[in-house]
Write a structure and sequence with these properties.
Layout lengths: L12 E2 L9 H6 L9 H17 L7 E7 L2 H12 L6 E5 L2 H12 L4 E5 L8 H10 L5 E5 L1 E2 L4 E2 L2 H10 L3 E5 L18 E5 L10 E7 H6 L11 H11 L8 H17 L1 H23 L14 E5 L8 H10 L2 E2 L1 E2 L7 E5 L6 H17 L8
Parallel strand pairs: 1-12, 3-4, 3-5, 5-8, 8-9
Antiparallel strand pairs: 2-10, 6-7, 9-10, 11-14, 13-14
Helix pairs in contact: 2-9, 9-10, 10-12
Bound molecules: pyridoxal-5'-phosphate.
The site of pyridoxal-5'-phosphate has 14 residues, from helix 3.
Length: 378
């Protein structure tokens, strides 16, 4: 059995949606001073862009990878503000906080917007999407979040992609928390723009996002400038012209990410990583249910990335105490983000292995005993 690097560090274990627990070799790759115009750095950036396309089952020149400095939201904002022209319209399918964030970006930039809003535990209605596209031919782009990290819900991008392709629209997928964990074939899923970031399932450290884009759609962005630093087209043409970033790149984070991509290959690629995450998730759910917790989502809508658990109906339960007691025992979990229901979340991505999940479950049992919620460790 592979055990995590945790024994070699004093770090806490992050059961969160990112930043994640990362491999020592990935962190160590960042411990280098390298100029942003150094040929070694330029070559690494080029390799990263190529490897990302390979993971999405596409290649240049029909698809391109663009790296954007900043967190995941920067990549989303870059895509939304660059892709949709003033004469276009975005249909945003929402069932969580990250879906709502896409609308917030569109509103700030006065981008024409229609929203389809669902409950946070509900999948979108495909017939409703289709009807909206028929009734509103001015819609040019459809956006959806693949893994809604708000709850752990997984949206049906294959089915939505088919509708998008039938009506010849552009498809924007926020795959922040799923790329690297789910096999996403951009071409067969009809995805025009896919966005993720360095600190998610590729298991790098935080500091940049990346946009994988269909070249024809990327070229259309040239006319839609709404921001200097988030101009997706200009960022891409800068990288394509001389391999360099327009503005200071996060050199060390890119070096770590390059190592993370190598580690992903060593693990056996996305299928092997998916298997590990799914096993972690099954173990987590089994252990938490045995301890008495109930899940917010039903199995048919759940991903194997992050899971929402309802607060136990017990007068002595306080999330703050539960969280800090687990934290003292080095296990970092995540608060909920739901408006209507009291939940907390546990992620099982990053350098976490079944042994870590088991240790967390044991610690949860101990903490519930300490809080006098259960009397014997279960
Ligand atoms: C699905 C999704 N979209 C967008 C974001 C925003 O990313 P960031 O916090 O890196 O800006 C996150 C962050 O967790 C996410 O999970």
């Amino acid at each position: 059995m592979i055990i995590s690097d945790f024994s070699k560090t004093k770090d806490k274990l992050l059961f969160t949606p990112g930043p994640l627990t990362t491999a020592m070799i990935v962190k160590e790759a960042a411990l280098v001073d390298l100029g942003s115009r150094d040929s070694a750095f330029i070559s690494i950036v080029q390799q990263i862009r190529q490897k990302l396309l390979v993971l999405a089952h596409v290649e240049s020149p029909n698809y391109e990878a663009v790296i954007i400095q900043g967190s995941g939201t920067f990549g989303i904002e870059s895509t939304i503000t660059s892709a949709i022209p003033d004469s276009g319209m975005l249909l945003n399918i929402i069932n969580g906080a990250y879906g709502r964030r896409i609308s917030q970006i569109a509103r700030i930039h006065a981008i024409p917007l229609i929203e389809l809003i669902y409950d946070e535990n509900q999948l979108p209605d495909l017939k409703e999407i289709e009807s909206l596209l028929i009734e509103n031919p001015e819609i040019t782009h459809i956006a959806v979040v693949h893994g809604e990290t708000t709850t752990g819900l997984l949206n049906p991008i294959a089915e939505i992609g088919e509708i998008v392709s039938h009506y010849k629209k552009a498809f924007i997928v926020d795959a922040m928390s799923t790329f690297g964990a789910y096999d996403i074939d951009m071409k067969s899923l009809n995805i025009s723009f896919l966005i993720s970031s360095s600190n998610k399932c590729i298991e790098g450290i935080p500091g940049f996002s990346y946009v994988l884009a269909k070249r024809i759609e990327l070229e259309k962005c040239k006319k839609n400038i709404r921001s200097l630093s988030l101009d997706l087209y200009d960022q891409w043409s800068g990288l394509n012209t001389n391999g360099q970033f327009r503005f200071t790149p996060p050199v060390q984070i890119l070096l770590a990410f390059h190592e993370a991509l190598i580690q992903l290959e060593r693990e056996g690629g996305i299928s092997a990583r998916a298997k590990r995450y799914a096993e972690n998730n099954a173990l987590l759910i089994r252990g938490m249910e045995k301890t008495g917790f109930t899940l917010y989502l039903t199995p048919d809508v759940r991903s194997y990335i992050i899971t929402s658990f309802l607060y136990p109906n017990h007068p002595k339960f306080s999330f703050e105490i539960f969280y800090s007691k687990l934290n003292e025992k080095v296990f970092v979990i995540y608060p909920g983000k739901l408006s209507k229901v009291d939940c907390f979340r546990i992620g099982n991505i990053g350098q976490l292995y079944p042994v870590d999940i088991q240790n967390l479950i044991d610690a949860v049992g101990k903490v519930l005993c300490e809080m006098n919620i259960i009397s014997i460790e279960q």
